[in-house]
Write a structure and sequence with these properties.
- The protein is 42% helix and 18% strand.
- The protein is built from eleven helices and ten strands.
- It has a five-stranded mixed sheet with strand order 3-2-1-4-5, with helices on both faces. It has a five-stranded mixed sheet with strand order 8-7-6-9-10, with helices on both faces.
- The longest helix is centred in the C-terminal third of the chain and has 30 residues.
Length: 346
Amino acid sequence: MNVLGIETSCDETGVAVYDTALGGAAGLRAHAVYSQIALHAQYGGVVPELASRDHVRKLLPLIRQTLAEAGLEVEALDGVAYTAGPGLVGALLVGAGVARALAWALDVPAIGVHHMEGHLLAPLMEDDAPAPPFVALLVSGGHTQLVAVDAIGAYRLLGETLDDAAGEAFDKTAKLMGLPYPGGPQLAALAQTGTPGAFRFSRPMTDRPGLDFSFSGLKTQVLLAWQNSDRSASTRADIARGFEDAVVDTLAIKCARALDATGCTTLVVAGGVGANLRLREKLQADATRRGGRVCFPRPALCTDNGAMIAFAGALRLQAGQHGDAAVRVVPRWDMAQLPPLARLAS
């Protein structure tokens, strides 16, 4: 199947074509992402109405571009997948409306994909992909979750953030130190020049049992440290390094606990924060020490993208799952509610 994937859950318009006959990394025939960062920068955050309007402007040209790069005519598509949730309702409706209309016109099946399942399955697009069971760390601007993956489509939530997601904490911490939007990547880049140990912050909720996360208190610690400092460029870098080390250590400690609790030896990491170099280095070192394995998608597929939606949708379409012609989105959607892929799991 040649499956078109459409991602419009927030502030990136993503389109991709995945070919199941090729599989692996080669199956990704083409993909493109348009980011709305410049549009929202002046407001310091995503404005939902502006995001929806920009998806309307960019989606059809991006579909044409992606099909051309894949060397395909639109009639060659065998299915359409789109993000149905979670996300901003207006943005989701843009992608869902286009996807359903295109599928109806081509008389091919379409399926709404869970955004976080797309992230979770993204590492499986790579060659030498891991097979379930494994533990997944989904870590982004909107989510921080540990999930036990018993089979594709069979997920158990092990732990999640009680307040800010890790990526959200990166963005908010950067903003309070005066870094421009979007602050998370800026803070991570700044941390590369900071002195390790110059500022040490707590590793939240690691002094007690459990797999949940909390980053709001860490954010407050950084604010107080910044307000009481000389606010020089070098101090900003040192605080950024201390904050990043605290987040990375916290995530790593919880991942180790989750692997112990489930008896799994493989960890899958996905989501925008999964591109963080220090997190990758820490989790890789931990996996080597434990004799296990950690798997990441390529950095370009960590942030929101159409490739992960095309791939996740292709797996479900191949399993015979698809929806009716109605345009439906689910802004709040528990991944545990997803139907299992019985054909693939068996």
